[in-house]
Amino acid sequence: MPTKRVSLRILLAATAMAALSVLWACKKPDDAAPPPAAPVEAPAETPATSATPMRYAAKTGAAEVELTLPDAVKSQPDLQARLYAEGVANLKSFAEGAANEQAESGGDEGAPTQPYTRSIEWSVGADTAKLLSLSSLTAEYTGGAHGNAAYGAVLWDKALKRLVAPAGLFNGNVDSVMDKALCDALTAEKKSRLGDGYSPPGPDSWACPRWRDTPFSLTPSTSPGKAGGLTFHIAPYIAGAYAEGVYEPTVPLTVFRALLKPAYADEFAGSPRPAAVAAGR
Fold it and tell me: Rounded distance, CA 76 to CA 219, Å?
C-alpha cells in the first residue's frame, strides 16, 4: 500500500510538470514580462514650478536695489514667478542705467556721490476665495532733495490663474460712476488732512485722477474673507504738492455693488475695514 501511494505521488508530480511545460511552450510573446522601462528624463523646470525666491537684493557702487514679495503669493506660484521675474528685470535695468550714468559722469562735478536706490515692495489688499489683490510701492532716490514713489497693483483670479483687468470686475461702462466716486473719496481725504489749507480742484491747484489710471487694491472687509471696497493708491504730485504725501482714498462697496460682474459679486460683502485694522489682520 505505501508503495502505491508513493508511485501515485510521483505520477501526479510528473503530470503537473508536463502540463506546465506545455503551457510555457504555448505562451504568446505578448504574455512575457515587459522589458525594463527606459529612464524618463524629468521635465525642465518652469518659473511656476521652481522655487521662486521671495526677495531679491543687489548692491553695487552705482545702485542698491531690492524686491520683496508677500507670503500670500506662495499659494499662487504662477503669480509669484511673474512678479519676481518682472521685478528683477526692472531692478536690473535700473542698476544698469545707474552704472552707465556713473561711468559717463567720469567724476565730473555734480556726478552722483552716493549709489542710486530703488525698492519694490508688494503688499496684500484683500484675499478672498477667488481673488488675491496686491499693491506695490516703488521707492527710489536718484539725487535731489527727496526721493520719488510710484504705485502699482494686480488683481489675480486664483481659479483661472490669470490677471484680471481693473474693468474686468464690472459690467458695462462704469467710468462716470467710478471717476466721481474716486474724486469724492479723494476730496474728503484731502479736506480731512489739510483742513483750512484745502483748496478745491482746479487748473491752478489739483485735479482728480481718472479711476482707470489709478492703481487700486481690494479693501479687506468687515466680513471675513471678503472685500468691502476699493482702495486707490495715489503717489505724491498726482493730486497735490509733494509735501501732502500719499493719498489712499477708499470707495465703499455700496457705490459699485450693482455694477459687479456675477462671477465676482460673491467676493464682496460688508464694509471696508479701517486701514489700521486691515493692516494687522
Answer: 20
* CA distances in angstroms from 275 to 23, 122, 181, 215, 230, listed in the order given: 80, 16, 19, 17, 12
Longest dimension (CA), the chain: 127
* Rg of the Cα atoms in the chain: 33
Residues contacting residue 174 through CB under 8 Å, at least 6 positions apart? 167, 256, 259
The DSSP 8-state label assigned to residue 221 in this structure reads B
Residue that terminates a domain, selected from 134, 164, 194 = 164
Instruction: Say if CB 267 and CB 227 are below 8 A apart.
Output: yes
Task: Please report where in the chains the cell 542710486 appears, as a residue.
Answer: 116
Q: Are 155 and 164 in contact (CB under 8 A)?
A: yes
β-strands 148-157, 216-220: how paired?
unpaired
Q: Strand pairing of 216-220 and 227-232?
A: antiparallel
Please report, for residues 16, 109, 193, the alpha-carbon distance to residue 210 in angstroms, rounded to integers and kept in the order given: 91, 42, 21
Measured at the alpha carbon of residue 267, what is the angle toward residues 264 and 269, in degrees to the nearest 5? 125
Domain with 275, as residue range(s), is: 166-281
Among 139, 164, 189, the domain-final residue is: 164
Q: Across the chain, what does the average pLDDT equal?
A: 84
Question: pLDDT (tens digit, 9 = 90+) per residue, 48-92?
Answer: 445 799 999 999 999 999 999 999 999 999 999 999 999 999 999
pLDDT, tens digit, 9 for 90 and up, residues 246-281: 999 999 999 999 999 999 999 999 999 986 444 444
| Residue found under cell 458695462 | 172
When divided into structural domains, the chain yields a total of: 2
pTM over 0.90, yes/no = no
CA distance 200 to 25: 100
Residue type, 86: E
Return the CATH number at 65.
3.30.565.40
CATH code of the domain in which 204 resides: 3.90.640.20
